Amino acid sequence: MISANDSKGSDFIRDIILDDIRTNKWGGRVVTRFPPEPNGHLHIGHAKSMCLNFGVAEETGGECHLRFDDTNPTKEEEEYVTSIKEDVRWLGWDWGAHLHYASDYFEALYEFAIDLIQKGKAYVDDLNQEQIREGRGTLTEPGKESPHRNRPVGENLDLFRRMRACEFEEGARVLRAKIDMGSPNLNMRDPVLYRVLKATHHRTGDAWCIYPMYDFAHGQSDSIEEVTHSLCTMEFEDHRPLYDWILNGLEIHHPQQIEFARLNLTYTVLSKRKLLHLVEDGYVSGWDDPRMPTLSGLRRRGYSPESIKTFCDRIGVAKRQTAVEVALLEHCVREDLNQRARRAMAVLHPLKVVIDNFPEGQVEELEAVNNPEDPAMGTHKVPFSRELYIESDDFREDPPGKFFRLAPGREVRLRYGYFITCAGFDKDESTGEVVTVHCTYDPETKGGQAPDGRKVRGTIHWVSAAHALEAEVRLYDNLFTVERPDEVEDYRTVLNPESLTVLTSCRVESSLVDAAPGQHYQFERVGYFCVDSSDSRPGALVFNRTATLRDSWAKIEGGGGKQA
Ligand code: ATP
Ligand code: MG
Fold this sequence. Notes:
elongated; Rossmann fold; disordered N terminus; binds adenosine-5'-triphosphate; CATH 2.40.240.10; 7-stranded mixed beta sheet; alpha/beta; binds magnesium ion
Protein backbone atom coordinates (compact mmCIF):
# COMPACT_ATOMS: atom_id res chain seq x y z
CA MET A 1 0.00 0.00 0.00
CA ILE A 2 1.15 3.52 -0.74
CA SER A 3 1.83 5.41 2.42
CA ALA A 4 0.15 8.77 2.76
CA ASN A 5 3.39 10.02 4.21
CA ASP A 6 5.62 9.22 1.26
CA SER A 7 7.20 12.41 0.10
CA LYS A 8 8.38 13.09 -3.41
CA GLY A 9 11.19 10.68 -3.99
CA SER A 10 12.83 8.78 -6.72
CA ASP A 11 11.45 6.13 -9.02
CA PHE A 12 12.87 3.91 -11.74
CA ILE A 13 12.40 6.58 -14.42
CA ARG A 14 14.11 9.31 -12.43
CA ASP A 15 16.91 6.84 -11.70
CA ILE A 16 17.43 6.22 -15.43
CA ILE A 17 17.39 9.94 -16.19
CA LEU A 18 19.80 10.82 -13.39
CA ASP A 19 22.09 8.07 -14.62
CA ASP A 20 21.95 9.47 -18.16
CA ILE A 21 22.88 12.90 -16.84
CA ARG A 22 25.81 11.39 -14.96
CA THR A 23 27.09 9.50 -18.01
CA ASN A 24 26.44 12.49 -20.27
CA LYS A 25 24.37 10.25 -22.54
CA TRP A 26 22.41 13.07 -24.16
CA GLY A 27 25.05 15.71 -23.62
CA GLY A 28 23.54 16.11 -20.17
CA ARG A 29 20.22 17.30 -21.61
CA VAL A 30 16.75 16.25 -20.46
CA VAL A 31 13.84 16.84 -22.83
CA THR A 32 10.48 15.24 -22.11
CA ARG A 33 7.05 15.87 -23.59
CA PHE A 34 3.42 15.63 -22.56
CA PRO A 35 1.51 14.56 -25.70
CA PRO A 36 -2.28 14.70 -25.26
CA GLU A 37 -4.55 13.89 -28.15
CA PRO A 38 -7.06 16.78 -28.33
CA ASN A 39 -10.08 14.48 -28.34
CA GLY A 40 -11.24 15.08 -24.78
CA HIS A 41 -10.48 16.98 -21.61
CA LEU A 42 -7.59 16.12 -19.31
CA HIS A 43 -8.23 13.93 -16.28
CA ILE A 44 -6.40 12.96 -13.11
CA GLY A 45 -4.51 10.25 -15.04
CA HIS A 46 -3.07 12.94 -17.29
CA ALA A 47 -2.05 14.83 -14.14
CA LYS A 48 0.10 11.82 -13.24
CA SER A 49 1.75 11.94 -16.65
CA MET A 50 2.27 15.72 -16.42
CA CYS A 51 3.73 15.53 -12.91
CA LEU A 52 6.22 13.01 -14.25
CA ASN A 53 7.12 14.76 -17.52
CA PHE A 54 7.06 18.38 -16.37
CA GLY A 55 8.26 17.37 -12.91
CA VAL A 56 11.38 15.59 -14.18
CA ALA A 57 12.20 18.52 -16.47
CA GLU A 58 11.84 20.97 -13.60
CA GLU A 59 13.97 18.86 -11.24
CA THR A 60 16.79 18.44 -13.76
CA GLY A 61 16.78 21.88 -15.37
CA GLY A 62 15.53 20.32 -18.60
CA GLU A 63 12.51 21.16 -20.70
CA CYS A 64 9.11 19.59 -21.20
CA HIS A 65 7.17 20.18 -24.38
CA LEU A 66 3.42 20.31 -24.66
CA ARG A 67 2.65 18.53 -27.90
CA PHE A 68 -0.81 18.05 -29.27
CA ASP A 69 -0.91 14.64 -30.85
CA ASP A 70 -3.40 15.79 -33.44
CA THR A 71 -3.03 13.27 -36.23
CA ASN A 72 -6.61 12.01 -36.28
CA PRO A 73 -8.77 14.67 -37.94
CA THR A 74 -12.06 12.91 -37.26
CA LYS A 75 -12.16 13.11 -33.45
CA GLU A 76 -10.25 16.23 -32.60
CA GLU A 77 -11.44 19.69 -31.84
CA GLU A 78 -10.04 23.11 -31.11
CA GLU A 79 -12.19 23.34 -27.96
CA TYR A 80 -10.10 20.54 -26.45
CA VAL A 81 -6.83 22.27 -27.34
CA THR A 82 -7.95 25.40 -25.46
CA SER A 83 -9.09 23.50 -22.38
CA ILE A 84 -5.98 21.30 -22.28
CA LYS A 85 -3.71 24.38 -22.28
CA GLU A 86 -5.79 25.92 -19.50
CA ASP A 87 -5.60 22.74 -17.40
CA VAL A 88 -1.83 22.36 -17.85
CA ARG A 89 -1.32 25.96 -16.72
CA TRP A 90 -3.74 25.56 -13.85
CA LEU A 91 -1.64 22.71 -12.49
CA GLY A 92 1.26 25.12 -12.57
CA TRP A 93 3.24 23.63 -15.46
CA ASP A 94 4.97 25.75 -18.07
CA TRP A 95 5.90 24.57 -21.54
CA GLY A 96 7.80 27.80 -22.19
CA ALA A 97 8.50 28.18 -25.91
CA HIS A 98 7.67 24.53 -26.54
CA LEU A 99 4.09 24.39 -27.65
CA HIS A 100 3.96 21.93 -30.54
CA TYR A 101 1.45 20.18 -32.74
CA ALA A 102 2.12 16.89 -34.49
CA SER A 103 0.19 18.42 -37.39
CA ASP A 104 2.99 20.99 -37.78
CA TYR A 105 5.18 18.04 -38.76
CA PHE A 106 2.93 16.64 -41.49
CA GLU A 107 5.34 17.72 -44.22
CA ALA A 108 8.37 16.37 -42.35
CA LEU A 109 6.56 13.12 -41.60
CA TYR A 110 5.70 12.77 -45.26
CA GLU A 111 9.38 13.17 -46.14
CA PHE A 112 10.30 10.53 -43.57
CA ALA A 113 7.83 8.17 -45.24
CA ILE A 114 9.43 8.87 -48.63
CA ASP A 115 12.81 8.09 -47.07
CA LEU A 116 11.58 4.74 -45.75
CA ILE A 117 10.15 3.88 -49.16
CA GLN A 118 13.44 4.77 -50.82
CA LYS A 119 15.26 2.52 -48.36
CA GLY A 120 12.94 -0.35 -49.25
CA LYS A 121 11.40 -0.24 -45.76
CA ALA A 122 7.84 0.74 -46.68
CA TYR A 123 5.39 -0.09 -49.45
CA VAL A 124 1.98 0.92 -50.70
CA ASP A 125 -0.60 -1.81 -50.22
CA ASP A 126 -3.85 -2.11 -52.18
CA LEU A 127 -5.47 -4.45 -49.69
CA ASN A 128 -8.42 -2.99 -47.83
CA GLN A 129 -8.70 -2.72 -44.06
CA GLU A 130 -10.53 -6.02 -43.72
CA GLN A 131 -7.99 -7.90 -45.84
CA ILE A 132 -5.10 -6.38 -43.91
CA ARG A 133 -6.69 -7.41 -40.65
CA GLU A 134 -7.24 -10.96 -41.88
CA GLY A 135 -3.68 -11.21 -43.18
CA ARG A 136 -2.20 -10.06 -39.90
CA GLY A 137 -2.60 -13.50 -38.29
CA THR A 138 -3.04 -14.10 -34.57
CA LEU A 139 -0.88 -14.56 -31.51
CA THR A 140 -0.50 -18.23 -32.43
CA GLU A 141 -0.45 -17.95 -36.23
CA PRO A 142 1.94 -15.91 -38.35
CA GLY A 143 0.59 -13.32 -40.78
CA LYS A 144 0.47 -13.57 -44.59
CA GLU A 145 2.55 -11.33 -46.79
CA SER A 146 0.58 -8.99 -48.99
CA PRO A 147 0.84 -9.60 -52.75
CA HIS A 148 1.92 -5.93 -53.05
CA ARG A 149 4.76 -6.26 -50.55
CA ASN A 150 7.52 -6.51 -53.09
CA ARG A 151 6.52 -3.61 -55.30
CA PRO A 152 9.53 -1.80 -56.77
CA VAL A 153 10.60 1.35 -54.95
CA GLY A 154 9.72 3.56 -57.93
CA GLU A 155 6.16 2.28 -58.05
CA ASN A 156 5.77 2.77 -54.27
CA LEU A 157 7.03 6.34 -54.56
CA ASP A 158 4.62 7.07 -57.37
CA LEU A 159 1.64 5.54 -55.59
CA PHE A 160 2.42 7.26 -52.30
CA ARG A 161 2.71 10.65 -54.07
CA ARG A 162 -0.65 9.96 -55.68
CA MET A 163 -2.11 9.05 -52.28
CA ARG A 164 -1.04 12.49 -51.15
CA ALA A 165 -2.56 14.04 -54.27
CA CYS A 166 -5.93 12.58 -53.24
CA GLU A 167 -6.17 10.30 -56.26
CA PHE A 168 -7.48 7.38 -54.23
CA GLU A 169 -10.57 6.79 -52.18
CA GLU A 170 -10.44 6.20 -48.43
CA GLY A 171 -9.42 2.62 -47.71
CA ALA A 172 -8.20 1.98 -51.25
CA ARG A 173 -4.49 2.22 -50.47
CA VAL A 174 -2.29 2.50 -47.38
CA LEU A 175 1.42 2.81 -46.72
CA ARG A 176 2.83 -0.07 -44.66
CA ALA A 177 6.18 -0.68 -43.03
CA LYS A 178 7.99 -3.69 -44.47
CA ILE A 179 9.08 -5.54 -41.35
CA ASP A 180 8.17 -9.14 -40.61
CA MET A 181 4.81 -10.85 -41.05
CA GLY A 182 6.07 -13.71 -38.89
CA SER A 183 7.04 -11.54 -35.92
CA PRO A 184 5.61 -12.73 -32.59
CA ASN A 185 4.80 -9.05 -31.96
CA LEU A 186 1.69 -8.18 -34.00
CA ASN A 187 2.73 -4.53 -34.10
CA MET A 188 5.73 -5.58 -36.21
CA ARG A 189 3.68 -7.37 -38.89
CA ASP A 190 3.93 -4.68 -41.53
CA PRO A 191 1.93 -2.05 -39.60
CA VAL A 192 0.04 0.65 -41.48
CA LEU A 193 1.91 3.99 -41.41
CA TYR A 194 -0.39 6.19 -43.49
CA ARG A 195 -4.02 6.05 -44.55
CA VAL A 196 -6.25 8.08 -46.83
CA LEU A 197 -8.78 10.15 -44.87
CA LYS A 198 -10.81 12.78 -46.67
CA ALA A 199 -11.50 14.75 -43.54
CA THR A 200 -10.95 18.37 -42.60
CA HIS A 201 -8.32 18.76 -39.91
CA HIS A 202 -8.87 21.36 -37.17
CA ARG A 203 -5.54 23.02 -37.97
CA THR A 204 -4.45 22.01 -41.47
CA GLY A 205 -7.91 22.19 -42.99
CA ASP A 206 -8.08 20.32 -46.30
CA ALA A 207 -4.36 20.51 -47.07
CA TRP A 208 -3.97 16.78 -46.49
CA CYS A 209 -5.97 13.70 -47.40
CA ILE A 210 -3.43 11.25 -46.00
CA TYR A 211 -2.76 11.10 -42.28
CA PRO A 212 0.00 9.31 -40.35
CA MET A 213 -0.92 6.62 -37.84
CA TYR A 214 -0.03 7.17 -34.19
CA ASP A 215 2.98 4.85 -34.38
CA PHE A 216 4.45 6.75 -37.28
CA ALA A 217 3.72 10.23 -35.94
CA HIS A 218 4.73 9.80 -32.36
CA GLY A 219 8.34 8.66 -32.49
CA GLN A 220 9.20 10.97 -35.36
CA SER A 221 7.65 13.95 -33.53
CA ASP A 222 9.76 13.01 -30.49
CA SER A 223 12.79 12.91 -32.75
CA ILE A 224 12.11 16.25 -34.44
CA GLU A 225 11.80 17.89 -31.02
CA GLU A 226 14.99 16.16 -29.86
CA VAL A 227 13.22 14.58 -26.94
CA THR A 228 15.61 12.52 -24.83
CA HIS A 229 13.15 10.47 -22.76
CA SER A 230 9.76 9.58 -24.22
CA LEU A 231 7.71 8.53 -21.18
CA CYS A 232 4.47 6.75 -21.93
CA THR A 233 2.07 4.28 -20.38
CA MET A 234 2.45 0.49 -20.37
CA GLU A 235 0.15 -0.18 -23.31
CA PHE A 236 2.91 1.18 -25.55
CA GLU A 237 5.45 -1.38 -24.38
CA ASP A 238 4.57 -3.64 -27.31
CA HIS A 239 4.93 -0.67 -29.64
CA ARG A 240 8.47 0.11 -28.54
CA PRO A 241 10.10 -2.31 -31.03
CA LEU A 242 8.27 -0.44 -33.80
CA TYR A 243 9.21 2.95 -32.34
CA ASP A 244 12.83 1.81 -32.40
CA TRP A 245 12.62 0.14 -35.82
CA ILE A 246 11.34 3.26 -37.58
CA LEU A 247 13.85 5.60 -35.93
CA ASN A 248 16.71 3.22 -36.69
CA GLY A 249 15.52 2.94 -40.27
CA LEU A 250 15.39 6.70 -40.70
CA GLU A 251 18.75 7.13 -38.93
CA ILE A 252 17.59 10.21 -37.04
CA HIS A 253 17.74 11.35 -33.39
CA HIS A 254 16.46 8.42 -31.35
CA PRO A 255 14.88 9.12 -27.92
CA GLN A 256 14.51 6.38 -25.33
CA GLN A 257 10.94 5.28 -24.78
CA ILE A 258 10.19 4.20 -21.20
CA GLU A 259 6.82 2.91 -20.05
CA PHE A 260 5.10 3.31 -16.67
CA ALA A 261 1.73 2.22 -15.27
CA ARG A 262 -1.38 4.28 -15.97
CA LEU A 263 -3.24 5.64 -13.02
CA ASN A 264 -6.45 3.79 -12.20
CA LEU A 265 -8.66 5.07 -9.42
CA THR A 266 -11.29 3.13 -7.51
CA TYR A 267 -14.95 4.07 -8.18
CA THR A 268 -13.80 6.01 -11.26
CA VAL A 269 -13.40 5.54 -15.01
CA LEU A 270 -10.50 7.32 -16.71
CA SER A 271 -10.96 6.43 -20.34
CA LYS A 272 -11.74 9.50 -22.42
CA ARG A 273 -14.14 7.45 -24.50
CA LYS A 274 -16.18 6.51 -21.42
CA LEU A 275 -16.01 10.02 -20.00
CA LEU A 276 -17.30 11.35 -23.32
CA HIS A 277 -20.23 8.90 -23.12
CA LEU A 278 -21.08 10.10 -19.62
CA VAL A 279 -21.27 13.63 -20.99
CA GLU A 280 -23.07 12.81 -24.22
CA ASP A 281 -25.63 10.56 -22.57
CA GLY A 282 -26.39 13.20 -19.95
CA TYR A 283 -25.30 11.21 -16.90
CA VAL A 284 -23.32 14.26 -15.84
CA SER A 285 -23.84 17.94 -16.62
CA GLY A 286 -20.65 18.26 -18.69
CA TRP A 287 -16.91 17.61 -18.73
CA ASP A 288 -16.60 19.91 -15.71
CA ASP A 289 -19.33 18.26 -13.66
CA PRO A 290 -17.81 18.15 -10.15
CA ARG A 291 -18.25 14.36 -10.08
CA MET A 292 -16.00 13.92 -13.12
CA PRO A 293 -12.33 12.92 -12.66
CA THR A 294 -11.39 15.57 -15.24
CA LEU A 295 -9.16 18.40 -14.09
CA SER A 296 -11.96 20.86 -14.87
CA GLY A 297 -14.36 18.73 -12.80
CA LEU A 298 -11.94 18.47 -9.89
CA ARG A 299 -11.28 22.22 -10.07
CA ARG A 300 -14.99 22.99 -9.96
CA ARG A 301 -15.35 20.50 -7.12
CA GLY A 302 -12.81 22.52 -5.13
CA TYR A 303 -9.57 20.61 -5.62
CA SER A 304 -6.49 22.79 -5.58
CA PRO A 305 -3.60 22.15 -7.99
CA GLU A 306 -1.37 21.56 -4.96
CA SER A 307 -3.56 18.76 -3.67
CA ILE A 308 -3.48 17.04 -7.06
CA LYS A 309 0.30 17.35 -7.30
CA THR A 310 0.70 16.00 -3.77
CA PHE A 311 -1.47 13.06 -4.76
CA CYS A 312 0.68 12.39 -7.83
CA ASP A 313 3.85 12.53 -5.74
CA ARG A 314 2.43 10.07 -3.26
CA ILE A 315 1.25 7.47 -5.74
CA GLY A 316 4.69 7.52 -7.35
CA VAL A 317 5.69 5.99 -10.67
CA ALA A 318 6.12 2.26 -11.26
CA LYS A 319 5.40 -0.39 -13.87
CA ARG A 320 2.86 -2.41 -11.92
CA GLN A 321 -0.81 -1.70 -12.70
CA THR A 322 -2.86 -1.15 -9.57
CA ALA A 323 -5.93 0.84 -8.67
CA VAL A 324 -5.28 3.68 -6.29
CA GLU A 325 -7.94 4.32 -3.64
CA VAL A 326 -9.98 7.40 -4.39
CA ALA A 327 -9.81 7.94 -0.61
CA LEU A 328 -6.14 8.89 -1.01
CA LEU A 329 -7.06 11.65 -3.46
CA GLU A 330 -9.65 12.94 -0.97
CA HIS A 331 -7.14 12.71 1.83
CA CYS A 332 -4.76 14.94 -0.14
CA VAL A 333 -7.38 17.63 -0.72
CA ARG A 334 -8.44 17.58 2.95
CA GLU A 335 -4.88 17.96 4.08
CA ASP A 336 -4.36 20.93 1.76
CA LEU A 337 -7.69 22.64 2.50
CA ASN A 338 -7.23 22.14 6.22
CA GLN A 339 -4.30 24.55 5.91
CA ARG A 340 -5.87 27.10 3.61
CA ALA A 341 -9.67 27.01 3.83
CA ARG A 342 -11.36 29.73 5.85
CA ARG A 343 -13.75 28.39 8.45
CA ALA A 344 -17.39 29.40 8.36
CA MET A 345 -20.66 28.17 9.77
CA ALA A 346 -23.35 26.77 7.53
CA VAL A 347 -26.45 24.78 8.34
CA LEU A 348 -27.46 22.29 5.66
CA HIS A 349 -30.74 21.08 7.22
CA PRO A 350 -32.01 24.08 9.20
CA LEU A 351 -34.02 23.75 12.41
CA LYS A 352 -35.17 26.97 14.09
CA VAL A 353 -33.97 27.66 17.65
CA VAL A 354 -35.47 30.51 19.70
CA ILE A 355 -33.42 31.79 22.66
CA ASP A 356 -36.37 32.77 24.83
CA ASN A 357 -34.32 34.86 27.29
CA PHE A 358 -32.40 36.81 24.63
CA PRO A 359 -33.94 40.24 23.97
CA GLU A 360 -35.85 40.56 20.73
CA GLY A 361 -34.16 42.84 18.19
CA GLN A 362 -30.77 42.68 19.90
CA VAL A 363 -27.72 41.59 17.90
CA GLU A 364 -24.34 40.68 19.31
CA GLU A 365 -21.15 40.23 17.30
CA LEU A 366 -19.14 37.19 18.23
CA GLU A 367 -15.60 36.53 17.11
CA ALA A 368 -14.91 33.46 14.98
CA VAL A 369 -11.47 32.08 14.10
CA ASN A 370 -10.70 32.02 10.37
CA ASN A 371 -8.37 29.06 10.55
CA PRO A 372 -7.07 27.41 13.72
CA GLU A 373 -4.18 25.97 11.66
CA ASP A 374 -3.03 29.43 10.66
CA PRO A 375 -3.48 32.21 13.22
CA ALA A 376 -2.25 34.73 10.63
CA MET A 377 -5.57 34.31 8.83
CA GLY A 378 -7.20 36.22 11.69
CA THR A 379 -10.81 36.27 12.78
CA HIS A 380 -14.17 37.46 11.55
CA LYS A 381 -17.44 38.47 13.20
CA VAL A 382 -20.61 36.41 13.31
CA PRO A 383 -23.90 37.94 14.43
CA PHE A 384 -25.80 36.30 17.28
CA SER A 385 -29.49 37.01 17.87
CA ARG A 386 -32.64 35.58 19.43
CA GLU A 387 -33.49 33.26 16.52
CA LEU A 388 -30.95 30.84 15.15
CA TYR A 389 -30.78 27.85 12.88
CA ILE A 390 -29.02 24.68 13.90
CA GLU A 391 -28.56 21.39 12.04
CA SER A 392 -31.79 19.42 12.49
CA ASP A 393 -29.94 16.27 13.49
CA ASP A 394 -28.17 18.15 16.29
CA PHE A 395 -31.49 17.98 18.16
CA ARG A 396 -33.22 14.79 19.31
CA GLU A 397 -36.52 14.62 21.07
CA ASP A 398 -35.53 11.21 22.53
CA PRO A 399 -31.74 11.17 22.48
CA PRO A 400 -30.06 7.80 22.18
CA GLY A 401 -27.12 6.92 24.46
CA LYS A 402 -23.92 8.83 23.67
CA PHE A 403 -25.88 11.63 21.98
CA PHE A 404 -24.25 14.71 23.48
CA ARG A 405 -25.95 17.38 21.44
CA LEU A 406 -29.22 19.21 22.05
CA ALA A 407 -32.19 17.44 23.65
CA PRO A 408 -34.88 18.42 26.17
CA GLY A 409 -33.18 19.60 29.37
CA ARG A 410 -29.66 19.27 27.85
CA GLU A 411 -27.07 22.01 27.73
CA VAL A 412 -24.67 22.43 24.77
CA ARG A 413 -22.14 25.01 23.63
CA LEU A 414 -22.78 27.10 20.54
CA ARG A 415 -19.55 27.40 18.55
CA TYR A 416 -17.94 30.81 19.33
CA GLY A 417 -20.99 31.59 21.49
CA TYR A 418 -22.84 30.73 24.66
CA PHE A 419 -24.09 27.66 26.44
CA ILE A 420 -27.76 27.05 25.72
CA THR A 421 -30.20 24.70 27.44
CA CYS A 422 -33.21 23.20 25.72
CA ALA A 423 -36.43 24.23 27.46
CA GLY A 424 -38.94 22.68 25.06
CA PHE A 425 -40.01 22.38 21.44
CA ASP A 426 -42.95 22.92 19.10
CA LYS A 427 -44.21 20.28 16.71
CA ASP A 428 -46.18 20.53 13.54
CA GLU A 429 -49.37 18.73 14.61
CA SER A 430 -50.03 17.28 11.20
CA THR A 431 -46.57 15.86 10.49
CA GLY A 432 -45.22 15.30 13.97
CA GLU A 433 -42.07 17.12 12.89
CA VAL A 434 -40.20 19.34 15.36
CA VAL A 435 -40.33 22.87 13.90
CA THR A 436 -38.93 25.05 16.68
CA VAL A 437 -36.69 24.34 19.65
CA HIS A 438 -36.89 26.68 22.63
CA CYS A 439 -33.74 27.35 24.62
CA THR A 440 -32.36 29.68 27.26
CA TYR A 441 -28.83 30.95 27.15
CA ASP A 442 -26.42 31.63 29.99
CA PRO A 443 -25.04 35.18 29.50
CA GLU A 444 -22.07 34.23 31.72
CA THR A 445 -20.76 31.70 29.16
CA LYS A 446 -19.74 34.05 26.36
CA GLY A 447 -16.72 32.62 24.55
CA GLY A 448 -17.69 29.07 25.44
CA GLN A 449 -16.51 28.85 29.09
CA ALA A 450 -18.66 28.75 32.23
CA PRO A 451 -17.27 30.78 35.17
CA ASP A 452 -18.36 28.01 37.57
CA GLY A 453 -16.29 25.53 35.57
CA ARG A 454 -19.22 23.32 34.54
CA LYS A 455 -18.65 21.33 31.36
CA VAL A 456 -20.83 20.50 28.38
CA ARG A 457 -20.13 17.52 26.15
CA GLY A 458 -21.32 18.91 22.82
CA THR A 459 -20.51 21.94 20.67
CA ILE A 460 -22.78 22.64 17.73
CA HIS A 461 -22.65 25.12 14.87
CA TRP A 462 -25.40 27.60 14.11
CA VAL A 463 -26.28 30.74 12.15
CA SER A 464 -28.39 33.76 13.07
CA ALA A 465 -31.76 33.32 11.34
CA ALA A 466 -32.21 37.00 10.50
CA HIS A 467 -28.70 37.39 9.11
CA ALA A 468 -27.94 34.08 7.43
CA LEU A 469 -27.98 33.80 3.66
CA GLU A 470 -30.00 31.18 1.91
CA ALA A 471 -27.82 29.00 -0.28
CA GLU A 472 -27.88 25.90 -2.43
CA VAL A 473 -25.47 23.17 -1.44
CA ARG A 474 -24.53 20.27 -3.70
CA LEU A 475 -23.26 17.11 -2.08
CA TYR A 476 -21.29 14.68 -4.21
CA ASP A 477 -20.50 11.04 -3.89
CA ASN A 478 -18.69 8.57 -6.16
CA LEU A 479 -20.15 8.34 -9.65
CA PHE A 480 -20.04 4.54 -9.46
CA THR A 481 -21.16 2.04 -6.85
CA VAL A 482 -18.40 -0.50 -7.52
CA GLU A 483 -14.67 -0.22 -6.97
CA ARG A 484 -13.75 -1.20 -10.53
CA PRO A 485 -16.39 0.16 -12.89
CA ASP A 486 -13.98 -0.49 -15.79
CA GLU A 487 -14.36 -4.21 -15.24
CA VAL A 488 -18.15 -4.12 -15.57
CA GLU A 489 -19.50 -4.80 -19.05
CA ASP A 490 -21.81 -1.80 -19.10
CA TYR A 491 -20.72 0.92 -16.70
CA ARG A 492 -24.19 2.45 -16.88
CA THR A 493 -25.49 -0.39 -14.75
CA VAL A 494 -23.23 0.62 -11.87
CA LEU A 495 -23.79 4.38 -11.83
CA ASN A 496 -24.50 5.66 -8.33
CA PRO A 497 -28.02 7.16 -8.27
CA GLU A 498 -27.00 9.12 -5.18
CA SER A 499 -23.87 10.69 -6.60
CA LEU A 500 -25.51 14.13 -6.40
CA THR A 501 -27.77 15.50 -3.67
CA VAL A 502 -28.97 19.08 -4.03
CA LEU A 503 -30.04 20.91 -0.87
CA THR A 504 -31.81 24.12 -1.73
CA SER A 505 -32.64 25.85 1.55
CA CYS A 506 -29.39 25.79 3.45
CA ARG A 507 -28.27 28.77 5.53
CA VAL A 508 -24.73 30.11 5.56
CA GLU A 509 -23.30 32.81 7.80
CA SER A 510 -23.65 36.37 6.55
CA SER A 511 -19.90 36.95 6.08
CA LEU A 512 -20.12 34.79 2.97
CA VAL A 513 -22.15 37.41 1.14
CA ASP A 514 -19.19 38.26 -1.11
CA ALA A 515 -17.92 34.71 -1.49
CA ALA A 516 -16.15 34.58 -4.85
CA PRO A 517 -16.45 31.72 -7.33
CA GLY A 518 -13.90 29.02 -6.55
CA GLN A 519 -13.36 30.27 -2.97
CA HIS A 520 -12.73 27.43 -0.49
CA TYR A 521 -14.35 27.11 2.92
CA GLN A 522 -14.49 24.61 5.67
CA PHE A 523 -18.05 24.63 6.96
CA GLU A 524 -17.38 23.72 10.56
CA ARG A 525 -18.30 20.14 11.44
CA VAL A 526 -19.75 19.67 7.94
CA GLY A 527 -16.97 19.49 5.36
CA TYR A 528 -14.94 21.35 2.78
CA PHE A 529 -16.88 23.37 0.24
CA CYS A 530 -16.23 25.81 -2.56
CA VAL A 531 -18.33 28.37 -4.34
CA ASP A 532 -19.52 26.92 -7.65
CA SER A 533 -17.79 28.70 -10.51
CA SER A 534 -20.64 28.28 -12.98
CA ASP A 535 -23.91 28.64 -11.13
CA SER A 536 -23.27 30.73 -8.03
CA ARG A 537 -24.42 34.38 -8.06
CA PRO A 538 -24.41 37.09 -5.41
CA GLY A 539 -27.74 36.63 -3.66
CA ALA A 540 -28.07 33.07 -4.95
CA LEU A 541 -24.98 31.31 -3.67
CA VAL A 542 -24.21 27.76 -4.70
CA PHE A 543 -21.62 25.66 -2.85
CA ASN A 544 -20.07 22.36 -3.93
CA ARG A 545 -18.93 19.91 -1.33
CA THR A 546 -15.29 19.14 -2.08
CA ALA A 547 -14.92 16.52 0.65
CA THR A 548 -16.43 15.50 3.95
CA LEU A 549 -14.37 15.80 7.11
CA ARG A 550 -14.29 12.07 7.66
CA ASP A 551 -10.95 10.84 6.40
CA SER A 552 -11.28 7.17 5.53
CA TRP A 553 -7.71 7.16 4.23
CA ALA A 554 -6.30 8.34 7.54
CA LYS A 555 -8.27 5.50 9.13
CA ILE A 556 -6.89 2.96 6.68
CA GLU A 557 -3.47 4.28 7.58
CA GLY A 558 -4.28 4.18 11.28
CA GLY A 559 -3.73 7.89 11.50
CA GLY A 560 -7.06 8.61 13.17
CA GLY A 561 -8.93 11.00 10.88
CA LYS A 562 -10.88 13.97 12.15
CA GLN A 563 -14.42 13.21 13.08
CA ALA A 564 -17.31 15.25 11.76
P1 ATP B 1 -7.53 7.51 -23.18
O1 ATP B 1 -7.13 6.07 -23.30
O2 ATP B 1 -8.33 7.84 -21.98
O3 ATP B 1 -8.09 8.10 -24.44
P2 ATP B 1 -4.96 8.42 -23.89
O4 ATP B 1 -3.77 7.74 -23.31
O5 ATP B 1 -5.31 8.10 -25.29
O6 ATP B 1 -6.17 8.26 -22.90
P3 ATP B 1 -3.75 10.89 -24.46
O7 ATP B 1 -4.39 12.19 -24.72
O8 ATP B 1 -3.10 10.19 -25.60
O9 ATP B 1 -4.82 9.98 -23.79
O10 ATP B 1 -2.74 10.99 -23.24
C1 ATP B 1 -1.70 11.93 -23.15
C2 ATP B 1 -0.65 11.38 -22.24
O11 ATP B 1 -1.20 11.11 -20.97
C3 ATP B 1 -0.11 10.08 -22.77
O12 ATP B 1 1.29 10.08 -22.63
C4 ATP B 1 -0.76 9.04 -21.91
O13 ATP B 1 0.06 7.91 -21.78
C5 ATP B 1 -0.94 9.79 -20.59
N1 ATP B 1 -2.07 9.23 -19.84
C6 ATP B 1 -3.34 9.10 -20.26
N2 ATP B 1 -4.10 8.49 -19.32
C7 ATP B 1 -3.28 8.24 -18.28
C8 ATP B 1 -3.45 7.61 -17.00
N3 ATP B 1 -4.62 7.14 -16.61
N4 ATP B 1 -2.38 7.54 -16.18
C9 ATP B 1 -1.19 8.04 -16.56
N5 ATP B 1 -0.96 8.62 -17.74
C10 ATP B 1 -1.98 8.72 -18.60
MG1 MG C 1 -3.77 8.32 -26.80
